[in-house]
Amino acid sequence: MQPRVETKPAAAGALAETRDLYTNFYTFEGVVRALNGVSVVIRRGETYGLVGESGCGKSVTVRSLMRIVQAPGRIDSGEILLFLNEQSRAQGIEIIQRTEAYMQSIRGCEISMIFQEPAAALNPVMSILDQVAESYLFHRMGQMIDETVARLDGERAAMHRASPRRALRKLQVALLKTERSGLRSDNIRQVKIDNELNLLEDRQDEEARERKEFLNRRRDRTRPSGNIASVARRVPLLRRYRRPISATIRRHVVELLRILGIPNPENVVRRYPHELSGGMQQRIVIAMALSCHPTLLVADEPTSNLDVTIQAQIVELIKELKRTSISSVLFITHDLGLVAEVCDRVTVMYAGDVSETATVRALFRGPLHPYTAALLASIPKADQQEELSMIPGAVPNLIRPPEGCRFHPRCPKRMEICERQKPLTVEHSPGHWVACHLYPGAAVND
Description:
Elements: E1 14-26, E2 31-43, E3 47-51, H1 58-65, E4 73-82, E5 93-94, H2 100-106, E6 111-114, H3 118-121, H4 128-139, H5 141-158, H6 164-199, H7 206-221, H8 227-234, H9 243-259, H10 265-268, H11 278-290, E7 296-300, H12 308-324, E8 328-333, H13 336-342, E9 345-350, E10 353-359, H14 360-365, H15 370-377, E11 425-429, E12 432-435
Parallel strand pairs: 3-8, 3-9, 6-7, 7-8
Antiparallel strand pairs: 1-2, 1-4, 4-5, 9-10, 10-12, 11-12
Helix pairs in contact: 4-9, 4-11, 5-6, 5-9, 6-7, 6-8
């Protein structure tokens, strides 16, 4: 039986929230209990940090948030709520039960991720242009068609009336407008389905469940209409009508790379990942994440395996993007120095548990959880003369995690209750949450 964990109510201005989230990996050796009731709230306009040792569940948390946990992993229980627009801000959209088609519509658009290893995130056999352009093709196709049609109309107006190219431009514009009409109709159908699913969100009766299953199947089958354009895409000669879209997308990609400080972007878009340095690869991954101006940017250790100079450049780039084009950033790292420099609030994780959540200033000035205090004590100081402090032991095997508080085998302040009961999360002071038996307090929802 899973232990009961009290979760705090949704915060004002929340953008994304997980409640009592359990994610497990079913391996031949046993069940890896990677997340043990994780509850976090990311607010609009903030940079939120997840920090902890390697293997504590930071990456699994964000992969669960985006529903990209790979087999043999599975989200077994809990809630993931998104508050992306005015319609969903009242109660949030619970995405665990939504279809993969719905998730594909928000991944890369509303929520984007900078993956930990840029060399692994980039496809070695695709050019930089093709990889960055995918987001434009999938999420911003309507905008690309509108811009292309406007450009072709301008070119056609400047041509001689008897010119064959003028007739070709007219045919291209007609087919593109047909395709755009199909995309618009498809979007209207999807919005209607999503709105009805939102209204049925809290209903659990049999009629509502059947209706939700029907709507989810219908959404998965929704495809852009526009028969003329669909037929033209299958004819080798006629499918060339879409070539001008590629030129429009290329201009957007080049401009995005230029904004990200990549020199000579016209040349870079023709290259392949192996031709770029580690810092350049990381900027390309950031470009892929930013191409649709996401509401939430997830940065999964974006500075790992980079030299110090490039790390500083990437951090400054993310901070500048946060000021100019992104609502919120979820920053994952095990570098507390980066947390102090970049984040507004931070959650400390250990072995799949949330240990402590507070503002960065409150956490560094007065850590409450023994694990947080041990992490801060292990940071080297400029005037330090004695040996560095270290945390004895190692992160436990999550196939057979310790009973009670998972940190108790390494905790210098452990008590008998720590070995048999998981601590509840309590609010020790306004905005400062801790899960430790040293601070019994009142349970969050009591």
